[in-house]
Each structure stands twice: as structure tokens, then as C-alpha cells.
């Protein structure tokens, strides 16, 4: 038994003072009780205020290599994709493992204990399968395990190069490695992968641009119980293409195809109609906002409070990792609402914490993590209250003042993964520098 001692902790939707969190050898919480000075178990003191582990519900690990490289000429979401294709072109199972391990290490430093990896770099650059058709997915799972967090691998169906008024267009050469050729072949490949103690295998439909209507139905039927994530209405151009081709919005198309439900997460959900919002809410589909990516790519500000009011639970992701700071993603839910409405307090701190923790984990298929409560996995994040950023903050409002740099200790399944702001087993900084430098050196060599 290990006892994690806290002076302040987020319990039952509020701050509790002076709490001991008793964790069994299986990594689950056995008791949450007032501090007992006579405790005889192993004692770990956690500084500041302690929250449940954070969930990063939407990640593209290799996009981390694009940070600080996409701003030179302004550009658009569509020109940004060219840099993304360049980065993807360099990856193989070994290099992707090394890069992802460093990226996931950065997430753990930021308090992330579960990640949803929206995975579509499946095959060789020419589109042929590796000897192990799931080699890239296995590389990501190994990377997450070695970095010390659990993963939901959202294996993504990606079949076409885009959508216009004439219908779906052929894959471009740089997209071939993303595709299995058909939803049936995709499903067969994914069926060879299995859940584990810290692994969930989920499904994803890349978007209505990349997966035709009949294939959307096949993906839904092939993954009846696992988490299902979908990029939805990130850009107005996507909406217009869907209207031109199908006569309806992406959300309406997904609903008609049976893709919306309590196991589904609509990622971005930025440019929605009133009917779209009603459909996502009535089906209890999660809405995953990635505010730092959505502002970096000039996507826009999505209707977070309208979706929540309609019944769609909110969760968060760092997507392209322009920033890996889930506190900043969470805070942006409220701050972006303030910019849109000229009103404060649109999303209360307790609702922000829910998006950051409970709802995010649930969207990834983890129903026993995200709360400091008996029977839950012992995922804990200690945020210092004495830094230059947090000094003077009310512990109950620290999600509106703290940053990833203020995370001191991270516990995953009862194991300390970060202590004193440093990862206990990975040189995250060194690995990021080495792997990202190597990736771009390969791009440069390939362009000569």
C-alpha cells in the first residue's frame, strides 16, 4: 500500500483539504481519507493541489515535428498539410517509436495520463504493407508504454484524397501510406490488434472527405463497441464539399450513417449548424476541442457551451501539438467563449476539470479513471501553487492560472512517472531534439 498525501485535492467536484489517497498494489485507489499522521504505509508527499490525471483525447504524435515550422508565410490549413506530408514521409516503425516516445514523454510531463492517438500512418510510403501490417500501431503502443501513460489507439480508416462536388477523389502519392484500400481491408487489419492493461484499440473515420458514405457505414459496423473518433467540420471548405457532394453537412451525413452515439467523439466540431449541434447533443456524442491547434491553424472557435447545453460532453486534445499543455487547452474553452460572447464565466472551473479529466478518459474508453475516488485508477497530477505563475491562486481556480510548467508530480496507475517536474525514466528534452532534428534532416536529404 502507498499513501499519497495531499494538502489540497480535487475530490467530488471541489477542493478537499488535507487528504490521504491510499493506493493498493494493483494501482487502484482503496481509500480517500483525512490525513492520518500515524499511517504506516509507504508515504509520498504531493505538493500543491492534486487533480486526477489529464486525458489528451486527440493526438497526432508525428505532428509535434511541425512546431515552430509552419508560420513563415502565413499560409492556410491546406498549405500546412504539405509540411505534415513531408514529416509523415520520413517515418518507419523504428523512427516513429522513438519520436512518439519523446512526444508522449512531453505529455506525461504536462500531466497527461491517457492519450488518444488518431493513427493513420499505417504502411510504407508507397502504400504497401509492412511485414507486420500493424507495425506502426505497435510502435505507438510501445512508445506510450515506455513513456508511462496508457493509450487508446484510434486506428483510422482513410480511403480517398478528398471530396468535391463530383465526389471523392483519388489518393495523392503522399497519402497512399494512410490507406488500406477499403473499409473491409482496414477492419481485417485492425482485428489483429487487441486491448491490454494500458491499451485500448479504438477506431477512427478520418473525415467525410477521406471516407465515402458507404464506407462510413462499414467502419461503424466493424467497430460496434469500441471508441470511434471522427474529424468533423474543422474547416468551412469541408462543409461545403460535403454539401456539394451529399446535400447535407458532415454531421448530418455521419448521423444518417449511424456513426453518432455515446461511444463517438466529434473532433474539432468547429463550424456547425444548429441542427448539427442538436444531433451531436441528442446522441450524446462527445465533442473534442483542440483550442491551441484550432487557433494555430485559424480554424475558428467552436460552439462549446451550445454543445454542452445540448447534451454533448466536452473533452480536450492537443492535436498537432503546437503546444502540449492540457491546462492551456482546458483554460481556452472558457477564454475563447469570452472572446466570442464578451461574457465571463461561461464554463465554470468544475466543468473545465471534467473536460480535462473524466470526460476525456471516457471518450477514450477508460471508465475507471479520471476521479480521485475509491475504485478508480490512481492517476494523480500535483500542480505547484508556489510558482511565479500560480502564487496566490485559489486552488479551486488554478486550472485558470497554471501551465504545464507548474506540474510537479505525475502518478499513473499508482506509479510515479514525473517527480520534481522531471520524467523519472526519459530524457524528454534530449530525445525530442534528437528525433525531430533527424526527421527534418531526412526531409532535407530527400529534397536534394
Strand order of the largest sheet: 3-2-1-4-15-16-17-18
Q: Distance between termini?
A: 58 Å
Average pLDDT for all residues? 96
Q: How many discrete domains? A: 2
Task: Please indicate the percent range of residues in DSSP E strands (runs of 2 or more).
Answer: 15-25%
- What is the helix fraction of residues, given as a range? 25-40%
The gross shape turns out to be globular
Gyration radius, rounded: 21 Å
Number of alpha- plus pi-helical segments = 14
CATH-defined architecture of the largest domain: Alpha-Beta Barrel
Detail the poorly predicted runs: none
CATH superfamily of the largest domain: Metal-dependent hydrolases
Query: Structural class of the secondary structure composition?
Result: alpha/beta
The number of strands is 18
Largest sheet: 8 strands, mixed
What top-tier CATH class of the largest domain fits best? Alpha Beta
Amino acid at each position: 500500500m502507498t499513501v499519497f498525501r495531499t494538502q489540497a485535492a480535487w475530490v467530488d467536484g471541489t477542493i478537499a483539504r488535507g487528504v490521504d489517497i491510499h493506493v493498493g498494489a494493483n494501482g487502484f485507489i482503496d481509500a480517500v481519507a483525512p490525513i492520518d499522521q500515524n499511517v504506516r504505509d509507504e508515504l509520498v508527499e504531493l505538493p500543491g493541489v492534486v487533480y486526477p490525471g489529464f486525458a489528451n483525447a486527440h493526438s497526432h504524435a508525428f505532428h509535434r515535428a511541425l512546431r515552430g515550422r509552419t508560420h513563415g508565410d502565413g499560409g492556410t490549413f491546406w498549405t500546412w498539410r504539405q509540411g505534415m506530408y513531408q514529416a509523415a514521409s520520413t517515418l518507419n516503425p523504428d523512427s516513429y517509436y522513438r519520436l512518439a516516445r519523446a512526444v508522449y514523454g512531453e505529455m506525461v510531463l504536462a500531466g497527461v495520463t491517457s492519450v488518444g492517438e488518431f493513427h493513420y500512418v499505417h504502411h510504407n510510403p508507397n502504400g504497401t504493407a509492412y511485414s507486420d501490417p500493424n507495425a506502426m500501431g505497435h510502435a505507438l503502443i510501445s512508445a506510450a508504454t515506455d513513456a508511462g501513460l496508457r493509450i487508446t489507439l484510434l486506428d483510422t480508416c482513410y480511403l480517398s484524397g478528398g471530396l468535391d462536388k463530383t465526389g471523392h477523389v483519388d489518393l495523392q502519392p503522399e497519402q497512399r501510406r494512410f490507406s488500406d484500400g477499403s473499409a473491409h481491408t482496414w477492419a481485417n487489419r485492425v482485428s489483429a490488434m487487441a486491448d491490454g492493461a494500458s491499451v485500448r484499440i479504438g477506431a477512427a473515420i478520418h473525415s467525410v472527405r477521406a471516407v465515402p458514405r458507404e464506407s462510413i457505414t462499414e467502419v461503424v459496423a466493424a467497430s460496434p463497441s469500441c471508441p470511434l473518433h471522427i474529424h468533423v467540420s474543422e474547416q468551412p471548405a469541408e462543409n461545403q464539399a460535403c454539401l456539394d457532394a451529399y446535400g447535407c453537412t458532415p454531421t448530418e451525413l455521419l448521423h444518417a450513417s449511424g456513426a453518432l452515439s455515446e461511444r463517438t467523439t466529434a473532433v474539432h466540431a468547429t463550424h456547425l449548424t444548429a441542427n448539427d449541434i442538436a444531433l451531436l447533443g441528442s446522441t450524446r456524442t462527445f465533442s473534442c476541442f483542440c483550442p491551441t491547434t484550432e487557433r494555430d491553424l485559424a480554424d475558428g472557435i467552436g460552439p462549446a457551451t451550445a454543445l454542452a447545453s445540448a447534451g454533448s460532453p466536452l473533452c480536450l486534445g492537443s492535436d498537432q501539438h503546437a503546444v502540449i499543455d492540457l491546462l492551456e487547452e482546458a483554460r481556452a474553452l472558457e477564454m475563447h467563449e469570452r472572446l466570442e460572447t464578451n461574457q465571463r464565466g461561461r464554463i465554470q472551473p468544475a466543468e473545465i476539470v471534467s473536460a480535462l479529466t473524466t470526460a476525456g478518459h471516457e471518450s477514450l474508453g477508460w471508465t475507471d479513471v479520471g476521479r480521485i475516488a475509491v475504485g478508480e485508477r490512481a492517476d494523480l497530477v500535483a500542480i505547484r501553487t508556489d510558482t511565479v505563475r500560480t502564487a496566490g491562486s485559489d486552488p479551486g481556480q488554478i486550472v485558470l492560472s497554471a501551465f504545464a510548467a507548474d506540474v510537479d508530480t505525475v502518478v499513473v496507475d499508482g506509479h510515479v512517472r514525473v517527480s520534481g517536474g522531471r520524467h523519472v525514466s526519459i530524457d524528454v528534452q534530449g530525445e525530442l531534439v534528437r528525433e525531430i532534428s533527424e526527421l527534418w534532416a531526412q526531409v532535407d536529404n530527400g529534397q536534394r
